[in-house]
Amino acid sequence: MREALSAEWVKLRTVAGTKWLLAAVVVATAALSAIADAATRCPAGRCQVDLAKTSLTGIYLGQAMVVILAATVISGEYGTGMIRVTFTAMPRRTAVLAAKAAVIVGLVLAAGTIAVAGCALVGQLILPGHGFTTAHGYEALSLGDGPVLRAAAGSVLYLALIALLSLGAAAVARDTAVAIGTVLGLLYVVPVVAALLGNSSTARHLQQIAPMTAGLAIQATTGLRALPIAPWAGLGVLAAWAAVALLAGGVLLRLRDA
Amino acid sequence: MTTTAVTSRAPGTRAGHSGFGRLLRAEWVKFRTVRGWVIGMLVALLVTAGVALLDHSACGGTVVPGGKVITGVGCAAPASGPGGVAVTDSFYFVRQPLAGNGSITVRMTSLTSGQGPAGLQPWSKAGIIITASTRPGSAYAAMMVTAGHGVRMQYDYTGDIAGPPGTASAASPRWLRLTRSGGTVTGYQSADGSRWSVVGTVRLAGLPAVVQAGMFAASPGSYQSSSQTLGGSSGSGAATVAAARFDHVSVTGQRAGGGWAGVAVGGPSPGTGFHRAAGAVTVNGSGDIAPYVAAGGQPGTSVEQTLTGAVVGLIAVIVVAAMFMTAEYRRGLIRVTFAASPRRGRVLAAKAVVIGSVTFLAGLAGSIAAVVAGERLLRSNGNFILPVSAFTEVRAVAGTAAIVAVAAVLALALGALLRSSAGAVTAVIAAVVLPYLLAIIVLPAGAADWLLRLTPAAAFAIQQTTPAYPQVSAPYTPGNGYFPLAPWAGFAVLCGYTALAVGLAVVALRRRDA
Questions:
Q1: Roughly how many angstroms between the first and final C-alpha of chain B, as a whole number?
Q2: How far is CA B449 from CA B143, B399, B445, B476, B478, in A?
Q3: Which sign, positive or negative, has the C-alpha torsion B111, B112, B115, B119?
Q4: Which of B316, B330, B479 sits opposite A79 (nearest CB)?
Q5: What residues of A are in contact with residue B36 (Cβ under 8 Å)?
């Protein structure tokens, strides 16, 4: 297993795209958060705004970079034929998948932590200037606050689970475009459909089982009763998606020719 | 040996002309012989149509979170105005019949809140009106003073002409006059009753010989826009009553008998009525005379709601379109392609025509099926669908297919530019689908509007079938289906980005090695 881990680490470290994608995760997340913060104003006070959630809006974009990074870890090997070399050197295919998962989760956790820290910093810089001051009844965003810490740490975990979901999907699809399209479609499109279906029970069920709407429930710090699903339960739904994808990927890796 | 074997071209064809036709044929063969891509198109078609069948919203039913939905109650459809547009037509009317040509003149000395804590709304209105009948949805023209938008002339629900600003009070009364001449009604206003200015002249179709003329008052339900509410702003709808006082009432022309009589058009509501004292008439009215707007909790469904599935189908289309280009690079086929057809720009053009046509047809078939099946399902659950003109419906359906086709060409061009399916697929989804998602469920309304002006997601404006009416206060946000750009302008934004990407791809293809 150690050899597998070190092999995957060398492969990922020496591919030129990795560091750019990791940088993109941080920059995209912080940039979209800054836009969302800048767009949220409350000059008179007493607005129903979830500041932690607003500050973490960037995850919506940052996760797309995570999807590319995690999917290409395996679909890229299929694209170039490298996968046959990998499996020749390391015949235990599930060990290869596990090593890839471990390496990518480690990298995404690191990049995600920096990205979320960036979001918190941007939020602390912008939001007080937009009316969200203690005078208006808003406490400054602080990671010492229980729900805020849960939102921040949960967002990092969310990115890691998205990486695992993408890795599993790519192991099933064996093609970069199909894997990324499927995962991004699952993430972005289901909430759009749920929103356009309006206030129906179908929409609510969709929001409870869709990986993004369920997983991002972890970011809510106010109005928890109105959420379609509770924060940790929502992250659990995403974890189930990731587990199923990895399991399917692992089984198919064993059953199919490389 | 003869020289006839040298050429493989069929006799009679010319090199320059048939070149592009052959290229098209080659690209079409490449497309249709990859089974995964054909399946991808079928998937796009089926989900575009299939999502419409998920829409089980039922008008009149109540949704209990986590509980059961009561269905089948149904909602009454709003009145239908001239031209078939859905209208709100409920107000208090003090009228008398007027035969043939004539005019009505009044002096309005106050517009105040009749009752209720909500008070006057900016579009609370009172004044004089000439209408075909007291049936809701009748053709009309009215001169009015509003609480927050000055003097207006409004006609046939959608027409709205601004006059001078200001409201009416005892200190500064407002004189209003309407004259009817055949099918034409002219509105005048004056501050002193002697110097009159024309606000507007309108032609009303189908005005009968005997019309109803008189004074009216109406006040829409209270609405507070809250731009910070995420996922579409919401308004609340407590009923309000406007009270208006008129004097110096004079009617010229042939009176068709009968004095002033009050009628609550569109059904009675509490606190409305009129009384006369000392030569003055006070009218208390509630409701609105305006186009019907479903946004903000009012029942009613737009046609485009059935086209939601196109966003899902779009994902499959983007994947296939990007692969149509990047697969050539991955397999090295691009070198064969460019060896056979050295003019690389033409190769890209042929690919764009093939993928654009195929995706347009798939999108069109899916959209037509979605609208037909979706409308049936919505109607069977007691919903009413806001009526739109046939042209508007065709624009929404064909426009949806056009979005799919242009997004496919964008994915193709980015595939050629980036030579990587990961980059192309992610870029197009992040540019077309993600801003739409952020605009309708994440960002506050102001930022959402800018996102739908600047990003390719602006193209979804082509699906909007009901316009935002300035004379009706409602949450006109992307979350409620109202886009900041006009339908074709929004579509042009996507086309602009696509043209740019195609241009860059042609330059890159020519300069780079294959």
A1: 37
A2: 34, 20, 6, 10, 7
A3: positive
A4: B330
A5: 178
Report the pLDDT value the prediction gives residue B474, as an integer from 0 to 100.
84
Reported as a pLDDT band with limits 50, 70 and 90, residue B74 is low
CA distance B351 to B355: 6
Say how far residue A155 (Cα) sits from the centre of its chain: 7
Distances (CA, A) of B455 to B291, B432, B449: 31, 7, 10
Query: Do residues B407 and B428 make contact, with C-beta atoms less than 8 angstroms apart?
Result: yes
Residue B445: per-residue pLDDT: 78
CB B87 within 8 A of CB B80: yes
DSSP classification of residue A128? G
Q: Which of B208, B60, B40, B58 is nearest to B131 (CA)?
A: B208
CB neighbour list of residue A245: distance below 8 Å, 6 or more residues apart: A164, A165, A166, A167, A168, A169, A171, A172
Q: What is the DSSP string of B25-88?
A: HHHHHHHHT-HHHHHHHHHHHHHHHHGGGG----TT--BPTTSPBP-----PPPEE-GGG-EEE
- Cα–Cα distances in angstroms (integers) from residue B143 to residues A54, A209, B83, B106, in the given order: 46, 54, 21, 10
- Pick from B252, B212, B269, B253: which is nearest to B96 by CA? B212
Write the CA distances from A212 to A152, B7, B149, integer angstroms: 16, 59, 44
Q: How many residues would you count in chain A?
A: 258
Rounded to a whole number of angstroms, the distance from the CA of B10 to the nearest CA of chain A is 39
Element (H, E) at B129: strand B125-131
Chain A residues in contact with B228 by the CB 8 A cut-off are 40-42, 47-49
Of A192, A196, A200, the CB nearest to B69: A200
Closest CA to B153 of B168, B137, B167, B164: B164
B contacts of A176 (beta carbons < 8 Å)? 420-422, 425
Closest CA relative to residue B401, chosen from B367, B433, B440, B354: B367
Closest chain B residue to A198 measured between Cα atoms?
B57
Largest CA distance in chain B: 117
pLDDT band with cut points at 50, 70 and 90 for residue A171: very high
Say if CB A126 and CB A30 are below 8 A apart: no
Give the tokens for residue A214. Answer: 């369920």
Task: Map residue B227 onto helix, strand or coil.
Answer: coil
- Quick check: B318 and A35 CB within 8 A? no
B231 has a pLDDT exceeding 60: no
Neighbours of B92 (CB within 10 A): 31
Residue B331, Cβ neighbours under 10 Å: how many? 11
User: Least CB-CB distance to A181: which of B318, B420, B447?
Assistant: B318
- SS3 for B328-347 is HHHHCHHHHHHHHCCCHHHH
Task: Kindly state the DSSP code that residue B332 receives in the 8-state scheme.
Answer: T
State how far residue B411 is from chain A, nearest Cα, in angstroms.
Answer: 11
Tokens 């109540």 belong to residue: B62
Task: State how far residue A201 is from chain B, nearest Cα, in angstroms.
Answer: 7
Closest by CA to B404, choosing from B339, B359, B366, is: B359
Torsion of CA B422, B423, B429, B431, to 10 degrees: 170
What is the tens place of the pLDDT at every residue in B431-468? 999 999 999 888 887 888 889 999 999 999 999 998 89
- pLDDT for position B228: 38
- Are residues B117 and B222 in contact, defined by beta-carbon separation less than 8 angstroms? no
Interval B158-209: pLDDT, tens: 999 999 998 888 888 999 999 999 889 999 999 988 899 999 999 998 889 9
Q: Which amino acid, residue B78? A: P
